[in-house]
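CORE FACILITY INTAKE
Project code: CF-77B
Contact: R.S. (postdoc)
Sample description: multi-component assembly, two entities in total
Requested service: structural model of the whole complex
Turnaround: standard
Below are the sequence entries exactly as provided by the requester. Do not edit them.
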Amino acid sequence: MEKLISVSFGEIALKGLNRRYFEDQLTKNIRRATRDLGIEKIYKEQGKLYIGAGEEKFPQIINRLKKVFGLVNISPCIRTDKDIKSIERAAIEALGEKVSHIRTFKVDSNRADKTFPIKSPELSRHMGGVILANFPELRVDVHNPDLYLYIDIKQNAYIYTEKIKGQGGLPIGSNGKALLLLSGGIDSPVAGYMMAKRGVDISAVHYHSYPFTSERSEEKVKELASIMSRYTGKIRLYSVNILEIQKQINQRCKENEMTILSRRFMMKLGERIAKKEGLNGLITGESLGQVASQTIEGIGVTNAAVDLPVFRPLIGFDKVDIVKIAKDIETYETSIQPFEDCCTVFLPKHPVTKPRLEDILKSEEALDVEDLIGQAIDNMKSTLIE
Amino acid sequence: MIYLDNCSTTRPRKEVADIMTKSFLEDFGNPSSLHRLGLRAEKRIKEARDLIADFLMVDQREIYFSSGGTESNNIAIQSFVKKHKKRGRHIITSRIEHPSILNIMKSYQGQGYEVSYLDIDKYGHISLEELKNSIRDDTILVAIMQVNNEIGAIEPIAEIGRIIREKNPGTLFHVDGIQGFGKLPISLKAWGVDSYSFSGHKIHGPKGIGGLYIDKKHSIEPLVFGGNQERGIRSGTENLTGIIGFGEAVKIAAENYEREGRQVGELRAYFTEKLKEEIGDIRINTSLDDKSSPYIVNISFMDTRAEVLLHYLEEDEIYVSTSSACSSRATEKSHVLRALGLNDQEIQGAMRFCFSHENSREDMDYTIEKLKASVAEIRQIIKG
């Protein structure tokens, strides 16, 4: 008899020939997320991964696993030999820890190994009887039990009572790499999280205009990246000062085009970094209509600044729903700190809400775009957030 | 480095650091312990308390140690209000007090107390006339600061004390002395002050230690219960090292504050005169006479954002403070500057310079040189 943690994965199971690749990626991600917790082994057995470690570490390991994308259910379980006496002993042990909190139960057996002589319904009935004999205070309830006792018959037998919900999604790294435009706001960390959940390996870029913004706003973004990294693993964070760009726009362009022109620069800078670092796309936290630059026309104009695909996972979300996720992933408290990454000096009073690409391109002619981008990239800083 | 943020905190004096390091390692006994080591610790606390009491010209039994200015303000006000709640539910304060006062007041308003906030004139001084008219039979407390932390206004504490005694002798008078203690002369007894709070790290002492004077004619109930240290007013094992450092800082301040005050006053005059010559379009928000602390001057640089200016200066290792952040949020605009009646532009460009005896004229010259260049650059950007 041995105590393990089992994890099941949902969508990965559908991936046919790629399945092995996804499973390997997931194993790697689990090892990385629990590196400091002394995992002794991870092995695969018929559609699940089993993790062995000191039992006292289980709560900590499970907490980390809850943040690993690609996991659907997480269960502490008991592995035994495939004979009925061992299974009975394991079931009594598994129930013993729970019995004071429950009144009713149901046995749910699953016989993957068809050579096992007892069929599933029969096994469930037999085990039900054993449990009732050992815990006479319990009753069977097949419709709405307080507790399920699961028995999986595979190469070994596995007994467990809990299915802790995982993040779902796909393993990080199984769906390419992309660069997140990370501001200090509420939306962009959520956008990064959503894409990471689809298996995208995230890097991030932050634009600031020190000394027109505070070093604290940079610290805040680092803090946000650090919270995100609990889900995504290490994040490479690029930090680009765009003060010179904002100064030039301020001097040479129309006040009401300040924001849209800055956004186009941010996209271009992002694309430059992404191409250099071999990333496959950009991610923004834009949500249609949320602010003046996120109108359908505004997004059209910023989108036209780049060739790479731009992912906007929040495009159809209401603010309240974004806030809810931000609270769940614990970036919200940091996002609402008052350090802003754009000084009010560079925020037009009445930004243009229906920009036309021709007009904006014409305005950009007043600027040496290539030179400004080159300078900003040359002075860029890069940090690895773990 | 040129440090001009001495209202936020000050650099500890070397003597303070030395005595603290030594005592931290040697005098670690708990003053409540019965053995010799405990006794030694108790003596060190008594020495510091005596020093502070002598400096304030009060009885050593009237001095209590706390964790700092905020706690001292809270102990004094909350204890007084609790004790006198049957006598009345009216409190008087000013619009420009520190948040540790204003937030207590806000909480009392929520509990059904009536709080009168005195207006201030353009340099931050309350009107004695308004005070006189505000004091009623049911006024239990007047809480006014000695020196305002943002603009340096010195409030007329002696006159306030006299008016309170005339109008309603039962009204208690609390003075927040955090920015005045160890820098300006004070006569608590003569002025009729019932309680006075002060802090260690504003006078080149350690952080995490402060003090409270309470006139011995008042007995107050503790807010925090425990082992009855500080005669029951502030339970908890004493911050011995902090107290020793605080005592040393007060000792040095007592010997030097008059001279240093004059020296800093001359420095402030030099700085503001030269600044007026060098940089146009500024507004000085401090009165620059004996009704303001020589340690503080607040200046609005028009067509700038003070926070941006602050970051420009930090690049040259000049450290200052602003009251407002570079932000669109109204709540981040200083309540003090608003109460002065400054407009948005004046508030956005307001910068606070707080001096110490460590600053020199060369520091002022260098600061003005950097200010001039930074202001010009920022104005060019903002005006577009």
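Facility notes:
- The longest strand of chain A covers residues 73-80.
- Chain A has 13 helices and 15 strands.
Invoice: internal transfer
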